[in-house]
Amino acid sequence: MALAKRLYVALSGHGFGHLAQVAPVLNAWRRRWPKARLTLQSALPEATLRQRIDGPFDCVALAADFGMVMVDALEAKIPESLAAYRIFHREWAARLSEQERALRAAKPDGVLADVPYLTLAAAARLDIPALALCSLNWADILAGYCPDAPDLVALREPMLSAYNSARAFLQPVPSMPMPDLNNVQKLGPIAALGRNRRQDIDRRLGLREGEILVLMGLGGVDMRPPLEAWPIQPGVRWLVPPNWSVSRPDMADWGALEGCSMVDLIRSCDVLFTKPGYGAFTEAACNGARALYVARDDWPEEPWLSRWLIEHGNAVKIGRRQLASGDLADALQRVLEQPAKAPVEPGGIDEAAGWLERLLDLS
Q1: What pTM was computed for the model?
Q2: What's residue 2's pLDDT?
Q3: Tell me: domain 198-337, CATH 3.40.50.2000, correct?
């Protein structure tokens, strides 16, 4: 009977970083317990979920949080986000009832949230054992952006109560501080590991020996730099998302590389061009890819992500003006000249999978 137990996962749709944290853990857990059942709730497209998460699972297309309202991948709409939280909490009773109905329908034996607090609150009301897993929480993100909001304490109270209701809040390295949580459990880094497909990529794209391959990955929130205005960087080829519709001889979309996952591309490239985010930073460091990343200094989690990446990986930070102008030659040279550091071991995967086993009493 234990092998048929069901885990219910509530996943934030605020970018792809939450999926990048959860997917390696779920895949490791399913390898140990292949008959266990899984339900996944998220506003992310089902096809995106299935690209990262192995094996069968049921989907619930329901958003349990929104994180922050964004202008683009780098900039948050702060007044709009504060207003959205006020509306969300005014509607708390109705939203909680909707989440409880979803949980009752799935009949899970345990809940994992990354990191919707609404789902944790519903699990507590239904007496379903639960875990949280994330490098951030929305209560501290909100406080980082809106420290002077007159109703900040009232807004954070149900958020913190829900997070503290979990049996543990699993906090993988690197994470922001969470001083108001009393159930934090530290984990090692979490990141999927890809296959090095560079030889095949060079052949399929016609790259010459010695050309530098830069992968553009700015996350799950749409943001397209003005690539048409960027200068040519001699000896550099760029891999860009298929929906960017770029027509330049030095740029190719990765949709042409059928069979290469995103993490394969990260492991195979010379440089990952990205923004601060847990998934991008840990996947770069754990796959041995150098990173060129755009400043996101107002994001409350950013200082801890950046310090960790600079200490454990190879990385250079650039400004928003450089993103707009494409003035990247010096930054590329600096990151390529850094002595290569050994890839980081993603030890948090097995640690988190062990927590899931104990949550469901599988071990």
Answers
A1: 0.94
A2: 46
A3: yes
